[in-house]
Each structure stands twice: as structure tokens, then as C-alpha cells.
Write a structure and sequence with these properties.
The chain has about 270 residues and is mainly alpha-helical. It is about 70% helix and about 0% strand.
């Protein structure tokens, strides 16, 4: 018992150190967004603003068509999330409940894609989306992300844990495959649906590289590209940039606070990767 106490103290101290390492820069970032531009780099540096102001937020919202970027990102994130859930659930169900040699080979191919960095397939992905006529459109941003190996694998692993007797009983009662999937399997997989929805929304909301490649018209820009466009070639309006960055984080923070119990209970044993 005496030996366990120092271990707990050191473990707790290490955790608080990690919290401070992650938390202090975020706190400094949030408080700096309320500082006027002249105070951001004044010496000595201060954590708390001496003259708090929200001018950075208002200027970011009014000067850079922020509402359009916000709306475009919301369309991309919501539509991609809904389609991702449907495609991943149906694909995961097929891979879990049907046995065939080519389905097993297909499963291995899907898992193999998790080992490829996303940047590796940017070039062929761009050619396909361009040939489909989706270049410079929000549909072109959504299309490549509607099915993910992570989502498919999460649903497959969950559906494997559902007893086959449940489906057999439904079939004996006259339920078809589609009806059994919608009325039995989908309600059972609600925790997976919520977890994937939160993760997919976060991925699409923070996505920067692919929208930067596929979008050229400023009217179609998403929020991350819009925030990056605030950075000028010769100077940076740091006050506006900080305000825009904080505004872009608000939807994710709200969603996390509402659905955090699903995030905390998520089954991460599958090894998640976008």
C-alpha cells in the first residue's frame, strides 16, 4: 500500500503535466483572440488581455465572407457525414454477415487502404473527380469522402458481434434482408452511428488539403481555406486570424459537449485512421 501511493502521485503529476502542456497553448490562443492587434506582440508578453475586445471576431465575420465559408463547410460536413454513415453501415453489414471468398478479399483491400497516406492518392483522386465534372464544386469535396475504411471496419466489427440467431429469427418471421437491416441491425448499431457521425463531421469540418486541391472559386471555399486566405503575402492581420480561427472551432466544441458520452465510450480497439 505504501509503495502504491508514490506511484499514484507520480502518475497524477504526469497527467497534470500533460494537461498543462496541451491546455496552456490553447488557453493562450483563446485569450489572445480577445486582444487588440497592438497588444499581441507587446513586450513583456501577457496571457490575459489588458483591453479585451471582440473586434477580431467582428472583422473576421464581416470582411472575409465568413458566413459563406461557414455555410459551405456546414453543407460539406453534414452531407458527407450522412452519406458516410449509410454507405459504411451497408458495406460493413455485407462484409460481416455474408461469407464469400471475394468478400474476404475485399475486406483485406479495404484494410490495406488504411496504410496509405491520404496524400498518396490525391493525384488519381483529382483526375477521377475532374472527369466526373465535379471540379470546383462542393459535390467534388464530398464525393471522395462518402465511404471510409474506418467506418466500414467499425460497422463490420460490430455486426460480427450480433448473433446470427437474431437475423435467422427475423427471416423465419418473414422479414426480408433490407427490412432486417433497417429495423434490427441499424437500431442496435446506434453507438457506432453516433461515434462515426462525430468523427466524420470533425474530419470534414477540419479538412484542408482536399478542398484546397479541388476548389478554385472563392465562392465555393470552405472555412479552413477561407481562414488560410486571411494570411496575406506580405503581412498578417493576427487579430482577425485568431478571431476567425476561434469562430471555426465553435461548432466542433458544441458538438463535442453535446455528444461527448458517445466519444468517450467509442470502441477504439480497431485502430482508427481517416
Amino acid at each position: 500500500m505504501d509503495n502504491l501511493l508514490p506511484k499514484k502521485v507520480w502518475a497524477t503529476a504526469a497527467l497534470w503535466f500533460m494537461v498543462a502542456m496541451y491546455g496552456i497553448p490553447v488557453l493562450w490562443f483563446l485569450l489572445s483572440s480577445f486582444k487588440p492587434a497592438g497588444e499581441l506582440f507587446s513586450y513583456p508578453l501577457t496571457i490575459f488581455p489588458k483591453q479585451p475586445t471582440i473586434s477580431g471576431f467582428t472583422e473576421a465575420w464581416t470582411s472575409f465572407d465568413f458566413s459563406r465559408y461557414f455555410g459551405n463547410t456546414l453543407i460539406v460536413a453534414v452531407s458527407a457525414t450522412l452519406i458516410t454513415i449509410v454507405t459504411s453501415a451497408t458495406c460493413g453489414y455485407a462484409l460481416a454477415k455474408y461469407t464469400n471468398w471475394w468478400l474476404r478479399a475485399f475486406t483485406i483491400c479495404i484494410l490495406a487502404t488504411t496504410m496509405l497516406p491520404g496524400e498518396v492518392i490525391l493525384s488519381p483522386l483529382f483526375l477521377i473527380v475532374r472527369d466526373l465534372g465535379l471540379y470546383n464544386s462542393l459535390a467534388g469535396v464530398v464525393a471522395p469522402s462518402v465511404i471510409t475504411a474506418t467506418g466500414t471496419f467499425m460497422f463490420r466489427q460490430f455486426f460480427l458481434s450480433v448473433p446470427r440467431d437474431l437475423l435467422e429469427a427475423a427471416r423465419i418471421d418473414g422479414s426480408g434482408e433490407l427490412s432486417s437491416f433497417i429495423r434490427i441491425m441499424l437500431p442496435l448499431s446506434r453507438p457506432i452511428i453516433m461515434t462515426l457521425a462525430i468523427m466524420s463531421f470533425q474530419w470534414r469540418w477540419n479538412d484542408y488539403i482536399w478542398p484546397l486541391v479541388i476548389l478554385n472559386d472563392p465562392k465555393e471555399f470552405t472555412l479552413q481555406i477561407g481562414v488560410a486566405s486571411i494570411v496575406g503575402a506580405e503581412n498578417v492581420n493576427w487579430s482577425v486570424l485568431l478571431g476567425a480561427s476561434v469562430l471555426s472551432m465553435i461548432p466542433l466544441v458544441v458538438i463535442y459537449l453535446i455528444f461527448q458520452k458517445y466519444v468517450m465510450n467509442a470502441d477504439l480497439s480497431a485502430g482508427l485512421k481517416e
